[in-house]
Amino acid sequence: MALRDTYRVLAFDLPGFGGSSPPPVPWGTPEYAAFVERAVASLGIPRATYIGHSFGGRIGIWLAAHAPEAVQALVLVDAAGIRPSATFRGRLRQLAYKTARTALRLPILGAHGPVLRERLAMRFGSADYRATTGVMRASMVKTVNLDLAACLGDVNAPTLLLWGEKDTATPIADGRKMEQLIKGSRLIVVAGAGHFSYLDSPAFVNAVVGAFLHGTRQGATG
């Protein structure tokens, strides 16, 4: 059974994603969370269950921690928000990038500087970074630089964590850490699934989320 058969389901493209225009200036997690809160409130919905995948999980964490009155329950699916520990190789790579970027700002390079800096970014940046430009690239940098681990202890809404067993983008270790830090949360591992666990195992994910929502609704009325 689809969730929309039982619940009112809202899904929209965030600014800069899908068919929505980018924000006017670079946004971070707080700005995106404020946008979602305003959008839901504008529909006359005082509280809602928030379901967020990956980047959307960041928004859910921030909302639940900073606007608890607006979040009835929280479902985090392969959620981002935990900053990975830097490896020695990673630190060397970051140092090399910053050193080269500084050198490419020298006035002697003239008009070639911006072109060379873009090539540098293409070489060192992640796939997501390379796929974005302008305000959305700046928004991505602003977002990923914010570690939400400190917010997790402030999440009091009933929380379900769903994680793909083979997720490499947001490793299952992140889910286990969130389960430890979010009071009363429960982690469900989706066997054989990757970062898009809801696409890899849609029937299983739908059933687990449906059971969770039923339980939170019963708890609210019981």
TrEMBL record:
<dbReference type="InterPro" id="IPR029058">
    <property type="entry name" value="AB_hydrolase_fold"/>
</dbReference>
<dbReference type="GO" id="GO:0016020">
    <property type="term" value="C:membrane"/>
</dbReference>
<protein>
    <submittedName>
        <fullName>Alpha/beta hydrolase</fullName>
    </submittedName>
</protein>
<dbReference type="Pfam" id="PF00561">
    <property type="entry name" value="Abhydrolase_1"/>
</dbReference>
<feature type="domain" description="AB hydrolase-1">
    <location>
        <begin position="4"/>
        <end position="202"/>
    </location>
</feature>
<dbReference type="InterPro" id="IPR000073">
    <property type="entry name" value="AB_hydrolase_1"/>
</dbReference>
<dbReference type="InterPro" id="IPR050266">
    <property type="entry name" value="AB_hydrolase_sf"/>
</dbReference>
<keyword id="KW-0378">Hydrolase</keyword>
<dbReference type="GO" id="GO:0016787">
    <property type="term" value="F:hydrolase activity"/>
</dbReference>
